[in-house]
Amino acid sequence: MKRTLAMTLAFLMLFACLSAGMKSYASNKAASREASAAEASALERANRELIEFNGELIELINAYSALRVKDGGAYSTARIIVGASGALDYTGSLAHVYGCGRHVIQYATPEEAMAAAESYRLLGGVEYAVPDAPFTAPKTAPFEPIRQAPHVDSFKSWGFGANFVNAFAYNEWLLESVGSADELPEIIVAVIDTGLEHNHPFFAGRTVPGYDFGDNDNDTGGGFFHGTHVAGTVVDGTLPNVKVMGLKCTDDYGGGLTSAIVNCMQYAYQNGAHVANVSIGGYYPETYNAYNSVINQGSDAGTVYTIASGNDSMNVSNCYPACIARALTVAAHDQNNTMWSGSNFGNLVDITAPGVGIVSAMPSGGYQAQTGTSMAAPHAAAACAMLKSGDPSMSADDVMDALKGAAVDHGITGGGTGCLSMTALVGSGSVTPGDVDSDGNVTVADALMCLRMAMGLLTLDGSALDSADVDGSGAVAVADALMILRMAMGLNG
Fold first, then answer.
1. Confidence (pLDDT) at 157
2. Total count of domains within the chain
């Protein structure tokens, strides 16, 4: 009788709490709509500022392109990027533009630009002053496709097979946990590269709008194959809930500038990309602080940056942005789990991924095998997207730690924690039944959240939704709230 009475009283209290909450529900819902509208408006303003800044920057670049010194190193453009929110003295410069906390300043010669950067670094309030250095998309090599054994998986890349990334097993587990791909959250992977061919059949239903920061327009089509191939690998290893956002940072020949990459990196996290793949970069240490700043900002916002280590058989500590600590730096291995001979390596590599003979989409509408760390990085981006599909709230650092912890050590020197694999993560991310708010305890508050979900007054997703569905029926009902309440009272386990 005592237990029954206690149970009755507790449930009455639960409904009393709900009734009190119902009185403010309408006003809370209105406030939520207003907050959503304000958030959308803020994003529109942020995007507008970035795009206007980029447009002015392109005009500046075009106006002074004749000043560029061929093979002139990091300062060959005679232009610098200064991270500072306050006003600057532009004395001695030819032109400048400002936006998003960045000043881009044009000088007449590389020497003047270098001297100005050194002076700006001494000023208070200046986060960094770096050259707007040139780069080209890394060279990759066409490669005879490495065929998988029949009936293994249906991936284009052997790298997603059972003995490597093991994408099939992880994706099957994801589907079993929710019922269908339609129940998985949309996960966006930004591909910061040379553009991609949206009309390729492989990308049907798998892209979201991006932006071309090379031409400052919405046409992210790529005249250079690199970005299409990279994006194809992301699509290859993931379920349909994962979409690719093409962010073009080069011209149609694969040439680009540091400023364009930084703008793309900002756009990615600003527009909700869960992952951003960067299979490009250069060897100018002077650019480090600009990359480090934007990657830290993006990581704080939840975006994981997967970066190719580079294809020059050298220490990755000399490659930018691959050497940034908070990025997931990816070297390349072959089908024997041996480091590819052309891959950059070193202590700043986090993981290796398949990068030899990787079949993916090409601008021609067909497919081709290519080799390089550019091909390895999107395997890691796909793995990040898989993890985020299971729990979109995972922080960037947690995603990287999970992948590094699950990597298989095949004794590769300078290859991070090992070869990328999802095997150890299949079935991971389990939740405590009833702990809807994930505070480590099952309480009446969890029961109330579950009840509100059952009544359509609250939306839950990810681990919270799994925790609320105590009976595993696939739907959150009042019965689940009652079970959680019993747990909170210690009446059942």
1. 96
2. 3
The pLDDT value recorded for residue 5 is: 57
Q: Establish whether the linkage from the previous residue to 321 is cis, with ω within 30° of 0.
A: yes
Both 260 and 243 in one domain: the answer is yes
Q: How far is C-alpha 402 from the geometric centre of its chain's CA atoms?
A: 15
Q: Which domain holds residue 396?
A: 142-425
Sign of CA dihedral 379, 380, 385, 389: positive
Same domain, 250 and 317: yes
Which residue type does 170 have? Y
8 plus 107 within the same structural domain: no
Q: 292 with 439, same domain? A: no
Predicted confidence at residue 431, as pLDDT, reads: 47
Quick check: is 193 catalytic? Answer: yes
Q: Classify residue 309: in a domain, yes or no.
A: yes
The tokens for 303 are 């975006």
Are 333 and 390 found together in one domain? Answer: yes
Q: What are phi and psi of 368, to 5 degrees?
A: -155, 150
Q: Look at residue 451 and give its three-state secondary structure.
A: helix
Say whether both 416 and 435 belong to one domain. no
State whether residue 324 is helix, strand or coil: coil
Q: How far is the C-alpha of 154 from the C-alpha of 173, rounded, in Å?
A: 17
The Cα–Cα gap between 422 and 444 comes to 36
> Quick check: is 274 catalytic?
no
Answer yes or no: is 55 within a domain.
Answer: no
Together in a domain, 261 and 307 = yes
Do the beta carbons of residue 125 and residue 85 sit within 8 Å? Answer: yes
CB within 8 A of 306, min separation 6: which ones? 275, 276, 277, 278, 327, 328, 330, 377, 378, 380, 381, 384
Q: Which two tokens stand for residue 487?
A: 């747990």
Alpha helices in 271-426 (DSSP H): 288-300, 373-390, 396-406
For the chain, which residues score pLDDT lower than 50? 25, 149-152, 430-431, 493
Whether the Cβ atoms of residue 81 and residue 134 lie closer than 8 Å to each other: no
Catalytic residue among 374, 389, 421, 463: 374
* Alpha-carbon span 18 to 15, nearest angstrom: 5
Does the annotation count 85 as an active-site position? no
What's the distance, CA 219 to chain centroid? 21
- Which one of 132, 153, 193, 446 is the catalytic residue? 193
Residue that finishes a domain, picked among 425, 457, 475: 425
pTM across the whole model = 0.81
All residues at 6 or more sequence positions from 454 whose CB lies less than 8 Å from its CB, including other chains: 476, 477, 478, 480, 481
